[in-house]
Amino acid sequence: MRTLLLLFLMLLSAPTFAFSQAGTTATLLLFVGLGGFTLANSLMQLCFYFSGLYHNEKFAQNHAALALIPSVIMFAISIYDFTSFGAFVMNLGGILIALALALLPVQLTSVAKAVATPRPFVITITSTTFLILGSFLAPLSLFAVILGYLGYQMTKGASRYINLIIGIVAISLLGYWLWQLLQSAGV
Fold it and tell me: Which pTM value belongs to this model?
């Protein structure tokens, strides 16, 4: 009986505030936002490597430059949300990993072998995958838009129209999600 009473009192005890939520915004954005972007960008890097687009050094440099933008934004958020040196160093470690993975296309141009025939079907398959994932996680449809546009430029015939349809559907999904986001924000 005494043990049961003690267990009941433990459930009713007030929190001791051993954890402060200050500074967790940057960490949450790092793991969810930058981590998700880095994963999606890694899939795009695989797609571009196997389709032969990294044979063009200018394309790889542009892709790497665009992939650096979220890391730079996350670094600014991490400085703004600075609460302790330990949390900042942990965030900085995640940002450096994302930076290293974002610069991977520049390294892949040196090892990319000449593709006898370009393989645009890889881009079509990847854009379809991002479109399917974008129907559940709407921000991923942005990657489907990008890949659909690249696939539209690279292909001819029926495959060209498939990429056009993927791009239009992905833009529609992204627009609907942004509309819902603005409506929930009260704008």
Answer: 0.79
